[in-house]
Inverse folding.
C-alpha cells in the first residue's frame, strides 16, 4: 500500500460525517469534484474501494479501517496544533459514543471541567448516543475514538478501563400505582401494565421483570420514550412502569414523584471505557477522587477526555468492577 494522503483521509472522514459528497464538500470548503478526486486518489493508494456511492453513501470494510486511522490522525493533529499554539483550519472532531443513561447522569459533569478549560483549543467534542450494548460498534467501525460500553474486551489497538456499575430499579408514580396496581406489581398483572422503554434496542425492562418474577423472555406492553430524562418524567406523570438508573431516579423518589417497586430487585450494569491508543503509552492511572479538575494540560486531548470520563464515572458510580 502506498503512503496515504492526509487530504484524502480528511475527505473520507468528512464523507462518513456528512453522508454525501455535497455536504462533505461544504464541510471541507472545497468543490464536490475535489472531494471525488481526493477519494479516488486515496482508493488508488489503498488498493480498495472505500465508499459505496449510494444514497445514503456508506463505507466499505476497508473504508472503515481507514476511517479509524483518519480519526486518529485528526486527534493527533489537534494535539500538535494545541502544543504549537497554532490554529486549526477547522475544528477537528473528537467523537465519543456514550449511552443515554450515562449522558443523563454523570457524563456531562465529568466532561464539564475539561470542556470549559478547552473552549479556545480549536477542537469539537462530539457525543454520539446509543445503547450501552451497541456503542462499541461505533468504535469498531471507526466512527468514534472512544466509547462507554458494557463490552469488557478491548479491540486490538484499544485500551479498556472499568468504570463502575450503574444500578437500575423499577419505579412508578403514586397515582399510577393506585390506579393500575393497588396490590403492587405481580407475576399476574405485569403483562397488562405499560412499561416505558427508551427504544427497540432497550431490554432493561424485560431484564428486570425476568429477574423479579423468574420469567424467561417476558413480553411487555411498551411505551417508547427515546430520552432518559423524558422517560423519568413520563413515569412521574403516570405513563407506566420505568426501570431507571438509580442516579436518575433518586431525586424523583426523594420528592415523592416516583415510588420504587420491589426495591430489593435491582440490575447492576458494568460499564467500561474504550479508546484507541494514539501513542505507545498506556493511559495514565486514574485516582478515584474528585473529577472536578481537568487532567494535566500536557496530555493528549483524547487521553484527557478518557481520564475525565474514568474519574467522573468512578466518582458517580463507586468502585469499578473487577477486570
Amino acid at each position: 500500500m502506498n503512503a496515504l494522503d492526509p487530504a484524502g483521509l480528511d475527505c473520507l472522514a468528512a464523507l462518513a460525517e456528512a453522508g454525501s459528497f455535497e455536504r462533505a464538500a461544504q464541510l471541507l470548503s472545497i468543490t464536490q469534484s475535489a472531494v471525488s478526486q481526493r477519494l479516488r486518489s486515496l482508493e488508488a493508494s489503498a488498493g480498495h474501494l472505500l465508499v459505496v456511492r449510494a444514497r445514503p453513501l456508506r463505507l466499505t470494510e476497508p473504508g472503515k479501517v481507514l476511517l479509524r486511522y483518519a480519526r486518529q490522525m485528526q486527534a493527533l493533529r489537534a494535539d500538535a496544533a494545541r502544543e504549537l499554539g497554532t490554529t486549526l483550519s477547522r475544528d477537528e472532531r473528537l467523537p465519543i459514543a456514550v449511552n443515554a443513561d450515562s449522558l443523563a447522569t454523570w457524563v456531562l459533569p465529568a466532561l464539564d471541567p475539561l470542556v470549559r478549560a478547552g473552549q479556545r483549543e480549536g477542537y469539537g467534542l462530539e457525543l454520539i448516543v446509543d445503547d450501552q450494548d451497541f456503542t462499541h460498534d461505533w468504535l469498531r467501525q471507526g466512527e468514534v475514538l472512544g466509547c462507554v460500553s458494557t463490552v469488557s474486551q478491548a479491540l486490538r489497538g484499544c485500551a479498556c478501563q472499568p468504570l463502575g456499575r450503574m444500578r437500575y430499579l423499577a419505579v412508578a408514580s403514586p397515582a399510577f400505582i393506585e390506579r393500575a396496581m393497588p396490590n403492587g406489581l405481580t407475576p399476574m398483572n405485569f403483562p397488562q401494565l405499560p412499561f416505558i422503554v427508551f427504544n427497540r434496542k432497550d431490554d432493561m425492562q424485560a431484564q428486570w421483570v425476568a429477574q423479579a418474577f423468574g420469567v424467561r423472555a417476558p413480553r411487555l406492553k411498551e411505551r417508547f420514550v427515546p430520552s432518559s430524562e423524558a422517560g423519568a418524567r413520563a413515569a412521574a406523570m403516570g405513563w407506566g412502569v420505568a426501570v431507571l438508573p438509580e442516579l436518575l431516579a433518586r431525586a424523583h423518589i426523594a420528592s415523592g414523584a416516583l415510588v420504587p417497586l420491589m426495591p430489593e430487585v435491582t440490575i447492576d450494569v458494568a460499564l467500561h471505557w474504550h479508546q484507541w491508543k494514539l501513542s505507545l503509552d498506556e493511559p495514565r492511572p486514574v485516582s478515584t477522587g474528585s473529577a472536578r479538575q481537568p487532567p494535566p494540560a500536557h496530555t493528549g486531548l483524547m487521553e484527557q477526555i478518557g481520564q475525565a470520563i474514568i474519574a467522573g464515572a468512578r466518582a458517580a458510580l463507586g468502585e469499578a468492577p473487577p477486570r
Q: What stands out?
A: The chain has a mean pLDDT of 87. The longest strand covers residues 158-172. Residues 61 and 299 are 32 Å apart (CA to CA). The longest helix spans residues 61-84.
